[in-house]
Every structure is written in structure tokens, then in C-alpha cells.
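Quick one:
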Amino acid sequence: MCFKHNVWKEFYKVITGNPPFEINTSVRPLYITLTKHNYVPFTLITGGKIISNENWIGNLMIQGDLIISKNTKINISNGSPVIEGSLTIEDGVKLNFDKDLQLIVKGNLIASGINSNVISFKSINEKNKWGGIVFDPLANGILENCEIQNAITGINCKKTLPKICNNSLYKNNTAINVFDINNLDNSISCNNIFANKQKGIYVNNSFIKIERNNIYENDVGIDCFHSNVFYIKIY
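Output:
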């Protein structure tokens, strides 16, 4: 077991068997990594604020309220991060993912950039697509002023729809997938969705709002399947 913080040295503790172990500290963010021979490491990140570039390696879970400070770069490899708590990503942050890896949201994701300093989600290597952002059924979130590119599916929403506005989604296989959602509170609005290999937006068994988007140069712009009540507003 390894405990780490970005301003003090690492502390290691070897544990055999199943004894109880307790550590008390107010330091945040705190990185707790569990390792075992021939297993991918598991890391738990507590709440706090990340203020410098980092490499996230292995299976990683975010608990508490974590903030990634503006203009920070995070490289992610060998495991898909899971947000159980809340992750806030400030403007200018760059998140680069290894092949097939996803950002899995089970809690809350706030990624809010600005026009002059967007948030970037993309693959480390342009030849290898990453998995995309996945919102699980009980998740919440905001994606605005983000660039999402080179993913298998840029944004994948299951039974929940975050606020998706003012983003650019391009060079993905599919930009946005929507499954089993009946929600007019949030919408997919004011996005630039272009140059995606397969579909701009795929809607399955859902009732949602899609409005004021620029959707072009995709193989299919909007594909609706079993979505009998569907609201599209085009300007």
C-alpha cells in the first residue's frame, strides 16, 4: 500500500493477511494505491485540488470532491478512471487517454471551459481511439466548451442526460450516444458535431431535446431508433 501527496514523499506500508489498518490525515488530495504481484494497481484519490501535470496509471477511483486546476495536463493509461464522488475540471485542462480507456461517471462531472480556453479530451496516440466519457444511470454532469475527439463514442449516456452545450465533437466513431432517456430538463445544444466516422448523434428509445447544433460531414447526422417522441429544434 502506498500513500502519496504532491508536496510530500510517498509512504509505503506492506500488509499481509487481512489486518485492519488506519491512517488519519487532513492532506488533500491523497493518493492511496494498492498493489499486488501480477495485478494492475488500484488507486483511490480523495477530494482536493490537482495543481500540476500528472500521469494516472492503473485502475483509479475518485471519491470526495476533486478539482483539476486550469491548464493542467493528465495522461491516463492502463485503466479507466471511475468518478464515484465529484470531479470538477477547470478551463484549459487536457486529458489524454490510452487506447480503449473511458472516463466513467457514476457521481458528478463538471467540465466547464471557456471559449478561449477549452477543455480537451482525446487519445494519447491519434492512431488508437480511446473509449469516451460514459455517464451511468445515476450520474450527473455538465460538459460545456470542451473538445472531444478521437473516441470510439465521445459521450455515452445511459438513462441520464447531462447538460451538453457549446462543445466540439469530431473525429470520433460516434459523437454522442443516448439510451433510454426521458428528460427535457437538459438538452444537447449549440454544439459543433462534425467529421465523425459513423454517427453524429445516435438516439435509442429516448425523448430529449436537440437544438441549435451544427451537425455536418458525419456519415449519419442524427440516427433515431425506437424514439417515437423526439424533439428536434433546428435554427
